[in-house]
Design brief:
With 339 residues, this protein is mostly beta strands. It folds into two domains: 111 residues, no CATH class; 217 residues, Beta Barrel (Porin). A hairpin with a 4-residue loop joins β18 and β19. The radius of gyration is 32 Å and the shape is elongated.
């Protein structure tokens, strides 16, 4: 079938002399194809021929060619050269443009007019860290802390969620139990800034807190958004409601200020991360709720890492008998995956 096609094309070429900008591809059987060489990738030439359309020709069937118009040649060391291309019978390439004329050995050719790499339209990342300890003997203690973070980005949309859980026992008596969660949706009218809506919930029985909820809207700026470094800051208005076990329930309108940063170093072997969220009462600016995380992850193998982290929470107006500050100094293991 290919031989018949080549014969027809050869006769067609003889009847119609080529123009100066036509590409010519010479085959090992002595015949020639004239048209437009679109691309060379994965050992195959793709060529468009008038009256026939696009055809594929394996590289081993080609002994020479000449481009009538400029094309881009890519070598195995990542260099791209644009110009008029030709290949001789020895497989050596010649590239000519206004600045230079150079030769490239055939074994160094990777592609001609390669398909552009399309950036992913969506990215996802999940990170989980587990921290715990267990002692026995004169003192029986157990403690565990879990943090789960998930981020999904699709074009102008971003979804972020965070979950944390803390548990501790002292001499088989529960001494700490708290759970928190936050979900946030960001919409990017422009790459540099976004609008958001968020919802959060937390309970901490040992802080007399049955349930605290927050819901709000606002705007933020994406200060840096690179593969190795991200940093954003945001502010908005949130409604805050607190249901206490003993103390009187409370609600307030608040100014919400939050930020997030993550920096990967040494090709991802180390990651420094930080986030913070503050709620400032609009009626009483001295009434503040705040929480933050600061940590370092060191990759061990694959997505597994060692994790060192500080979690801090502050309530400037806690119920009677409850301390303002909670601090957690954590060492544990983590796992991250991006897809």
């Amino acid at each position: 079938m290919l031989s018949t096609l080549i014969l027809v094309l050869t006769l067609q070429v003889a009847a119609n002399p080529t123009t100066s900008d036509a590409d010519i591809l010479e085959l090992v059987d002595g015949s020639s194809l004239v048209g437009s060489i679109l691309q060379f990738e994965d050992g195959v030439y793709r060529m468009n021929i008038d009256g026939v359309g696009e055809i594929d020709i394996a590289a081993e069937k080609v002994k020479g060619l000449r481009f009538g118009k400029t094309a881009t040649l890519v070598t195995d060391n990542g260099m791209s050269i644009e110009g008029l291309l030709s290949m001789d019978e020895n497989g050596e390439w010649r590239v000519t443009n206004d600045l230079l004329e150079t030769r490239v050995p055939g074994q160094n050719l990777v592609a001609i007019n390669p398909t552009p790499e399309t950036p992913p339209t969506s990215t996802q990342k999940v990170t989980i860290t587990l921290n715990g300890s267990r002692t026995s003997g004169n003192t029986e203690t157990t403690s565990a802390v879990m943090n789960l973070d998930y981020k999904f980005r699709y074009l102008t949309h971003r979804f972020v969620s965070k979950i944390d859980w803390t548990y501790a026992e002292d001499n088989q008596v529960v001494s700490k139990r708290s759970t928190g969660a936050e979900v946030k949706y960001d919409f990017f009218p422009e790459d540099e800034w976004f609008l958001y809506t968020s919802f959060g919930a937390r309970n901490d029985g040992f802080a007399d807190l049955a349930l605290r909820t927050t819901a709000g809207i606002g705007a933020g700026i994406q200060v840096i958004d690179r593969e190795d470094l991200t940093w954003s800051e945001e502010a908005g208005i949130s409604a805050l409601n607190e249901d206490f076990k003993v103390a009187e329930d409370d609600s307030a309108s608040t100014l919400r200020v939050a930020g997030n940063a993550e920096w990967s170093l040494r090709e991802g072997d180390m990651t420094v991360f930080h986030d913070h969220t503050l709620f400032v009462s609009l009626d009483d600016p001295d009434d503040i709720l705040a929480q933050s995380r600061l940590g370092l992850r060191t990759r061990v193998v694959g997505g597994f890492s060692l994790n060192a982290q500080i979690n801090a929470r502050h309530d400037s107006s806690p119920p009677a008998g409850i301390r303002e500050n909670d601090l957690e100094f954590l060492l544990g293991v983590g796992y991250s995956k991006s897809f």
